[in-house]
């Protein structure tokens, strides 16, 4: 049963900020009022307070409103406190205990993934994916899972041309996609399979499968992957392995109030 809000102004303020955060650009007050089913006068009053406090900026020429610097500071505070690491670490550790292979949690940063959590299974080889390491997202299973969950426009912005696929020294021996069309084909398979894979493209003889963790807007907030020696798990068993990851991803999504 729904709980009746005791502080409707606070609830509507949070709804308004959440709505702006889910948009791909600034929005008109009238559109916000329609989307939230609120009187325009209420929306304008809330916007005025939020603009004054720096959480929203008004673009008078466009007659639109977008998130302000204070909202950005909240997001950086989220990053500093690393709640994804704290919430994800025990879940990744439990996953490793169940499957007996190493696993990690990553976030997307530009065209790279950054490793937040790394849990190595007993008697498994060391990996290049230590905490804080950055790797090209189009070469990693976790990165591919995240890219597959992005809108097409965001993907085009990240990979506008072949220069975006140029390899950097130390990236690893794998080939991976070398153009936007190759990347789109690869991500189409990820969506069809329901999980991403990588086979020797980071470290020879090692393979990975991965799934995305979605936030409350459906945006890919993180990726969870399992990495294992290629000869230990036959490829026809990878979907079952991905199903184990999906359960972990769904639980982490629930903990951040996201969409499974």
From TrEMBL:
Listed SUPFAM superfamilies: GAF domain-like, Winged helix' DNA-binding domain
Superkingdom of origin: Bacteria
InterPro entries: ArsR-like_HTH, GAF-like_dom_sf, HTH_MetabolicPath_Reg, Tscrpt_reg_IclR_C, Tscrpt_reg_IclR_N, WH-like_DNA-bd_sf, WH_DNA-bd_sf
Pfam family, one: IclR_C
SMART domains noted in UniProt: HTH_ICLR (SM00346)
Presence of the UniProt keyword Membrane in the record: no
MF annotations from Gene Ontology: DNA binding; DNA-binding transcription factor activity
Keywords in alphabetical order: DNA-binding, Transcription, Transcription regulation
IclR-ED domain location: 70-258
Ranges of residues in domain HTH iclR-type: 7-69
One BP annotation, GO: negative regulation of DNA-templated transcription
PANTHER family linked to this entry: HELIX-TURN-HELIX TRANSCRIPTIONAL REGULATOR, ICLR FAMILY, HTH-TYPE TRANSCRIPTIONAL REGULATOR RV1719
Name of the protein: IclR family transcriptional regulator
Organism in which the protein naturally occurs: Cryobacterium zhongshanensis
């Amino acid at each position: 049963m729904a709980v009746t809000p005791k502080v409707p102004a606070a609830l509507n303020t949070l709804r308004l900020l959440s709505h702006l955060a889910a948009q791909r650009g600034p929005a008109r007050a009238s559109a916000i009022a329609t989307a939230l089913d609120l009187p325009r006068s209420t929306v304008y009053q809330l916007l005025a307070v939020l603009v004054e406090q720096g959480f929203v900026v008004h673009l008078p020429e466009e007659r639109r409103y977008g998130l302000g610097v204070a909202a950005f500071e909240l997001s950086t505070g989220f990053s500093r406190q690393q709640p994804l690491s704290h919430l994800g670490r025990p879940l990744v550790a439990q996953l490793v205990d169940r499957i007996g292979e190493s696993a990690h949690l990553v976030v997307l940063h530009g065209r790279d993934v950054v490793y937040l959590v790394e849990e190595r299974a007993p008697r498994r080889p060391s990996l290049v994916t230590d905490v804080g390491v950055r790797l090209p997202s189009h070469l990693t299973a976790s990165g591919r899972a995240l890219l597959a969950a992005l809108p097409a426009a965001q993907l085009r912005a990240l990979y506008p041309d072949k220069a975006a696929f140029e390899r950097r020294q130390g990236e690893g021996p794998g080939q991976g996609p070398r153009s936007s069309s190759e990347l789109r084909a690869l991500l189409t398979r990820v969506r069809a399979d329901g999980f991403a894979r990588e086979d020797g493209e980071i470290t020879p003889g090692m393979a990975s499968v991965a799934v995305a963790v979605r936030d409350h807007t459906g945006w890919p907030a993180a990726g969870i992957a399992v990495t294992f020696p290629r000869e230990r798990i036959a490829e026809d068993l990878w979907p079952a392995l991905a199903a184990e990851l999906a359960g972990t991803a769904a639980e982490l999504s629930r903990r951040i109030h996201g969409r499974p």
